[in-house]
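step: validate -> pass
step: tokenize input -> pass
step: predict -> running
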Amino acid sequence: MQSNIRNFCIIAHIDHGKSTLADRLLEVTGTVQARDMKAQMLDSMDLEREKGITIKLAPVRMNYKRDDGAYQLNLIDTPGHVDFSYEVSRSLEACEGAILVVDASQGIQAQTLANVYLAIAADLTIIPVLNKIDLPAADVERVSGEVMSLLGCQREDILLISAKTGMGVPAILDAVVDNVPAPRGNTTAATRALIFDSYYDDYRGVILYVRAVDGMIAKNSPIRMLATGADGIALEVGALSPRMTPFQAIQTGEIGYIVTNLKSTREARVGDTVTLTKAPALQGLPGYQEVRPFVYAGFFPESNEYYQELKDAVEKLSLSDSALQFAPENSPVLGFGVRIGFLGLLHMDIVRERLEREYNLELIVTNPSTDYQISLLSGEELAIQSAAELPDVSMIKEIREPWIQGEIVVPKAYVGSVVQLVVNRRGVQKDISYVDAKTAADDNSGLAVVSFDAPLANVLTNFYDQLKSATSGYGSFNYELTGYRVEDLVRVDFYVAGNKVDALSVMAHRTEAQSLGRVTVEKLKEVIPRQNFQVALQAAIGGKFIAREDLSAYRKDVTTGLYGGDVSRKKKVLAKQAKGKKRMKRFGKVDIPAEAFTVLLQRD
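step: predict -> pass
step: emit ->
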């Protein structure tokens, strides 16, 4: 019965207790028996458990009985990181309500704001919850004030819980039943179901997580994806509770899974609409986007003999991650590898760890860069993903780089240092607003929201670490891509012993190129081992060198056997040594260690 269904999700900043609350809800409703329970029940990957974050969202169906009847509660546990914000937005479209979890000791943070804006845009009923109220550091009064200021709700609307101990959790289920509206949908209209997640199973093919908006999808029905045009068969349909439980059909308003005969998630992307082949819907559900990566890095095997294994591993991973895009790459220094596009640095980190763990690969990863749009004098338009692909400067009319719109949430006392950090990254501070929860005793309490625009390339490397340092760990950061702007960009090349190393080349703004070159050659001097001959490390823009460091040679004392006699004997031996080193230098090849290629990730 549609009126007894409630679809809701949990949204929060990272580490505010989403997955722990989901565990308690499963326990309270009896969906999972106590003997089968484990921490982070819905986080199935080892990486999720280790890092304590949700990477892949997971839906689960719970049956909740009250005096006024039995209710079907469909919960979606969403990822909290900015890299996966598109997945979060699609999950919110599949729901009518959202539980907003705020840590009572930390208060509102950047991802809290971002998710609240998404929930308001999706017209969801928001149930505010303060978690971790049993901690000694919990400041319920202050954080309640912040939540009231953000949502415009009353103090009695905010539920106080401890997801770890289970205190106050049953009240959340009652609030969901009472406040979240039942799903609306036309049972007799042409079938339309929203895909809010999809993944590839080695044994069963592509599995879709869907919300049936109109009509129904029965087992063995021929189905079609409206955006990609792919046709398939619903081999099995059902719900997760939390294991797969097959049913005969997914009815209007329900959330469930479809096992298909498709071979790749590229045929059934997140946000697409599933309909029946026999009576297809004419119009898809709104909001579908092609997810486009905007961080790129080169992945190379430690030895060239493992290139085929790396290529196979990346192809397998891309079957279950439609956001992953890759192309073969060749470097004179590193050999054959793969250039992969990611949604962000966390996404890159996860893919790297999965390749190393699941496929037992030793990898060299080059500095991450973003993509650039180039207009040539001939009128041709190019898109490049690495500095090495930049055409001759004489052919270029203009170069455009991606800019982001960012939000930093920080206590008022740190606003000055945050603005300084933004300006140092070529950012433009636009607006400062306040989530007002100050107490009479302390005028500096309460949170400030600093809005700014900045080039994406400048916030890719260690911006987050510097933000944490500048704000004593209190600052949190969220961003979204806004478009491309024309800038005065140059390619900075690096030479080791006179040989250009393409894998180290980077794009930089002309005003920052000299300091970037100087810092990088200093770092290279630290990581490249000394040789038997002197090695020059140089940075250059085009044909002009802008920075240089020299690795001094190992010096063997060849004069130890000489004692007494004329000084010319000593000079003769040293001259012979210098001659040998010169010859060595001419034929010498410098071994560059893997750390040299990620040296820009650690730059200060």
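step: describe -> The longest helix spans residues 567-587.
step: cleanup -> pass
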